[in-house]
Every structure is written in structure tokens, then in C-alpha cells.
């Protein structure tokens, strides 16, 4: 009888632990998806107006804080490292619109850290022409589920296309 109780308690503990990990993983994926959607959709009218004011406007600082402050650990570092608005800035100044078609996020197995691989199918449009490309990379999250590091590994093709 004692063994049965221990087995039931063990199974209950494992189930609760697994559910907690699953919820944490979903929350982490949501933070990453939010970042990717912000980076690969637009620019909208508000952002275009702000970008036209120059790179050091108060409005741009406010926009970045409002849109990225809750999901990125050190926003100033990310801005200085060109991890925000890179593609949207190029799209704006070269007359393109971006749209994310498919976003795939997978936790990297067998690592101690919160490391995720991402892949985004990005549609870019100018005038009447539409093309797509894939941008992929890795994102690290801190213990709070905020983005602490981004490694864009395969955005060169999109960058080249936007600057042609």
C-alpha cells in the first residue's frame, strides 16, 4: 500500500513538473514570437513617420521602449548592436513592406540555457513585386523569459534584397 501511495505521489509530482515546464516553454516561445513579429512586419505608418525624423529622435526612443522594452533585457545594448529595426529600417528607406508568413520556434535540446532556434518566412513587397526568403537564427532567454541575446544567422539575403 505504501508503494502505491509513493508511486501515485511520484506520478503526480512528475505531471505537475512537466506541466510547469510546458507552460514556461510556451511563455518563452511567445516572447520570441512577439519579437519576430515586430521585426518582420511593417513598417507601419507610425514607424515610417518616426524613421523619417532621423535616428536619434525622442519618438524613436519611445517607440522602441514601448514595443521592445518588455521582451528584451538590455534594450540599449540591442539598439547599439543593431538587433532591433534592422530590416524594417532598410524596408522603409527603400520602399518595401515586410510580412512574416510562417514562424517556427524550437527549443534547442541538450542545452543548459534557454536557447531557441527560429526560422521566419518573410515576404517582402515593393510596387507590384512580392518575394519571400527565410531568416533563421538563435535567441537566448534569461531566467525571466526575456530575450538576452539574438544571433541572426541567415538574414543576409533579405538585407541584400532590401538594399537593391
From TrEMBL:
Keyword Signal: yes
N-terminal signal peptide: 1-18
This protein's UniProt keywords: Signal
Domain of life, per lineage: Bacteria
Name of the protein in its database record: Uncharacterized protein
Organism: Paraliobacillus quinghaiensis
Amino acid at each position: 500500500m505504501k508503494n502505491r501511495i509513493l508511486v501515485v505521489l511520484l506520478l503526480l509530482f512528475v505531471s505537475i513538473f512537466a506541466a510547469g515546464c510546458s507552460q514556461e516553454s510556451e511563455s518563452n516561445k511567445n516572447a520570441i514570437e512577439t519579437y519576430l513579429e515586430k521585426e518582420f512586419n511593417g513598417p507601419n505608418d507610425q514607424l515610417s513617420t518616426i524613421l523619417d525624423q532621423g535616428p536619434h529622435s525622442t519618438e524613436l526612443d519611445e517607440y522602441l521602449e514601448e514595443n521592445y522594452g518588455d521582451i528584451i533585457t538590455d534594450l540599449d545594448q540591442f539598439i547599439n548592436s543593431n538587433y532591433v529595426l534592422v530590416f524594417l529600417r532598410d524596408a522603409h528607406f527603400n520602399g518595401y513592406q515586410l510580412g512574416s508568413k510562417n514562424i517556427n520556434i524550437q527549443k534547442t535540446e541538450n542545452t543548459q540555457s534557454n536557447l531557441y532556434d527560429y526560422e521566419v518566412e518573410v515576404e517582402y513587397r515593393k510596387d507590384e513585386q512580392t518575394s519571400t526568403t527565410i531568416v533563421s537564427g538563435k535567441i537566448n532567454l534569461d531566467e525571466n523569459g526575456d530575450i538576452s541575446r539574438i544571433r541572426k544567422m541567415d538574414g543576409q539575403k533579405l538585407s541584400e534584397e532590401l538594399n537593391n
